[in-house]
């Protein structure tokens, strides 16, 4: 199978060298003939980094496994193959008054990918991560066996696979609990804030009063305007539509421009226009669910606007007690570096515990920044953001990453060895080879030297 379609959404890393369809991988796994570190599952390619890549091996295209198996219109439990997209789950369940309890920033992720990355959304303070709503799944490992995993069966594999970035085997299908909603429409309110201090003053009360809350930051603003932005809050409308819209917008970036379109002059104008348009009224208004949850899905292949070298996304989380110092420091470092972030999002994580062994969300504040790939200049900035985050006792998101070092990963996820102990020996990703595997080699060398 050609590998040209199996790249990272960030476009900053090379696409997969080799790819095989799911049925071929399933037959290979059942035969027990898989080589060490040879496979990694690939969903719909919406990860920004290399957690869905295996530069030394083969990626498995899970998209052909796309059947919805059953849906209980009373309980909201849906069972589907791992390659089913979130937009298909929404379309299937919406007429019955259900919606996924947790959705990330795009509806074009697979069910298996959402579980493997334990994705989060704008309502972590109420619903936790995607993994909190997983009932069970089937997992195929290289010993040829298929395991049913839940809180009652194969419990260690259940907790390791949620948030395990595809390293414990192939998720074949899963059952998840959806959330009953009065409608798909959202009653949205936009509140302007002058600086980050004002945002932090608003954030806790916004979370208590609303199902959804997220802030946009004008990352390029300096002087007295530094840290200004908009706080978006939302709740499902009591009276509104139950009809899912066709996924994907009419607009698309048909060709790859030879340079970064989202440069600093463009972003300066864009930020000013966006702040004016979105923040001109503080009155509540009805918004469609796609515009509220998935605004970037309206332009297909928008990542191409970053040019041929792609982008790096940096998402960090820092403890709430240190956020008022650390978040401004992160933004200031990026601003001083002269690199504009097209997407700058700040939100508060709650204390709803994930069942995952490794899960990025934890109580505190999470900041997301997108930067065009300008080579060493950008890598140096990202390393500085890593350092500030780790020094504050925070973590860097692995499934958004394409370059973090082993030390940053270990500081962010000190329990990484527990996942390594449950990793299927046939499964490896470029991310895991760059971080955990390197840490393991160093540990072995140190033990041999003692």
Automatic annotation (TrEMBL):
Q: Which InterPro entries match?
A: FAD-bd_PCMH, FAD-bd_PCMH-like_sf, FAD-bd_PCMH_sub2, FAD-linked_Oxidoreductases_BP, Oxid_FAD_bind_N
Query: What SUPFAM superfamilies does its record include?
Result: FAD-binding/transporter-associated domain-like
**Signal sequence coordinates:** none
Keyword Oxidoreductase included in the entry's annotation: yes
Q: Where is the FAD-binding PCMH-type domain?
A: 1-181
Q: Keyword set for this entry?
A: FAD, Flavoprotein, Oxidoreductase
| Keyword match Signal | no
**Family stated for the protein in its record:** Belongs to the oxygen-dependent FAD-linked oxidoreductase family.
Q: What is this protein called?
A: FAD-binding oxidoreductase
């Amino acid at each position: 199978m050609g590998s040209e379609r199996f790249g990272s959404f960030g476009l900053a890393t090379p696409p997969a060298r080799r790819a095989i369809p799911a049925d071929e991988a399933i037959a290979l796994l059942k035969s027990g003939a898989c080589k060490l570190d040879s496979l990694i599952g690939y969903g719909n390619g919406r990860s920004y980094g290399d957690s869905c890549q295996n530069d030394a091996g083969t990626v498995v295209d899970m998209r052909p496994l796309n059947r919805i198996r059953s849906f209980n219109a009373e309980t909201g439990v849906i069972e589907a193959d791992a390659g089913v997209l979130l937009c298909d789950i929404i379309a299937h369940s919406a007429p019955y008054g259900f919606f996924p309890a947790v959705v990330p920033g795009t509806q074009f992720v697979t069910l298996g990918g959402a579980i493997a990355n334990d994705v989060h959304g704008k309502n972590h303070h109420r619903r936790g991560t995607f993994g909190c709503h997983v009932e069970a799944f089937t997992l195929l490992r290289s010993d040829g066996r298929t395991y049913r995993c839940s809180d009652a069966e194969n419990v260690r594999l259940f907790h390791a696979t949620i948030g395990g970035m595809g390293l414990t085997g192939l998720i074949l299908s899963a059952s998840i609990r959806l959330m009953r909603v009065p409608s798909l429409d959202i009653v949205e309110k936009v509140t302007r804030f002058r600086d980050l201090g004002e945002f932090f003053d608003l954030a806790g009360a916004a979370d208590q009063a609303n199902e959804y809350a997220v802030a946009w930051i004008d990352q390029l603003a300096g002087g007295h305007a530094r840290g200004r932005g908009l706080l978006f809050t939302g709740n499902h409308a009591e009276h509104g539509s139950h009809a899912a819209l066709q996924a994907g917008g009419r607009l698309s970036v048909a060709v790859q421009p030879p340079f970064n379109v989202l440069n600093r002059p463009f972003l300066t104008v864009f930020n000013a226009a966006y702040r004016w348009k979105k923040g001109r009224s503080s009155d509540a208004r009805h918004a469609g669910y796609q515009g509220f949850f998935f605004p970037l899905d309206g332009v297909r292949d928008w990542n191409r606007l970053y040019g041929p070298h792609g982008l790096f996304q940096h998402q960090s989380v820092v403890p709430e007690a240190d956020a008022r110092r650390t978040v401004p420091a992160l933004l200031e470092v990026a601003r001083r570096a002269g690199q504009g972030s097209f997407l700058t999002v700040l939100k508060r994580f709650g204390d709803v515990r994930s069942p995952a062994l490794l899960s990025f969300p934890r109580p505190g504040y999470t900041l997301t920044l997108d930067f065009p790939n300008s080579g060493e200049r950008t890598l140096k900035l990202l390393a500085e953001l890593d350092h500030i985050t780790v020094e504050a006792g925070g973590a860097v998101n692995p499934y958004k990453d394409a370059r973090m070092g082993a030390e940053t990963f270990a500081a962010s996820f000190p329990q990484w060895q527990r996942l390594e102990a449950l990793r299927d020996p046939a499964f490896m990703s470029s991310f895991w080879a760059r971080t955990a595997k390197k840490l393991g080699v160093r540990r072995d060398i140190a033990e041999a030297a003692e």
